[in-house]
Design brief:
By secondary structure, the protein is an alpha+beta fold. It has four helices and five strands. The chain has a domain of 61 residues. Helix content is 70%, strand content 17%.
Length: 165
């Protein structure tokens, strides 16, 4: 007698194996596309960034606008130093107590780590900024349209006053 669990188990097992094979094929395809298309684009992107960021930093410009994009430097690159105080303290305890201050300063200098923090920037299409300008202009036009009838009534009243004088 064939049990229902065995039949269900075989179907699920086949489905899982097919799904795993499909995932493997998709992973291979994704890696191939990344290596063929994305990798050269990333290399070119890094090259362009490495040439433009130093020039903009030397010029002192944080925002630059072209016909299509707005380039903003959000955070300039800088160096950050950190000290491992636990290592400093443990090393300092094992040393002789004489000239402790100079010894700890020398150890601090040896254990200080410097790391370069890269610059952060954003690139946005100008259309997004243009939409804001369009909204501002639309609001300005509406206020002027509301003001024009009032100005016309003032001009008409001034004409009537001139007629009486």
């Amino acid at each position: 007698m064939i049990k229902l669990k065995d039949l269900i188990g075989e179907d699920i097992d086949k489905d899982i194996k097919q799904n795993i094979n499909e995932l493997g094929k998709l992973t291979e395809e994704i890696n191939r596309v990344k290596n063929e298309i994305l990798k050269p684009m990333e290399d070119k992107y890094k090259e362009v960034v490495s040439t433009t960021l130093p020039i903009l930093e030397k010029l002192g410009k944080e925002t630059l606008t072209t016909k299509k994009y707005v380039f903003r430097i959000l955070k300039k690159k800088h160096y950050r130093s950190s000290v491992s105080y636990r290592e400093l303290f443990n090393t300092g305890l094992s040393k002789v107590n004489r000239q402790t201050r100079t010894l700890l300063n020398n150890l601090k200098d040896e254990l200080t780590k410097m790391s370069l923090i890269g610059a952060k920037f954003s690139i946005q299409p100008i259309e997004g900024i243009g939409d804001n300008m369009k909204k501002l202009m639309k609001g300005f036009k509406m206020k002027i349209k509301k003001l024009i009838p009032k100005l016309k009534s003032v001009m008409k009243a001034n004409r009537d006053l001139r007629k009486f004088v």
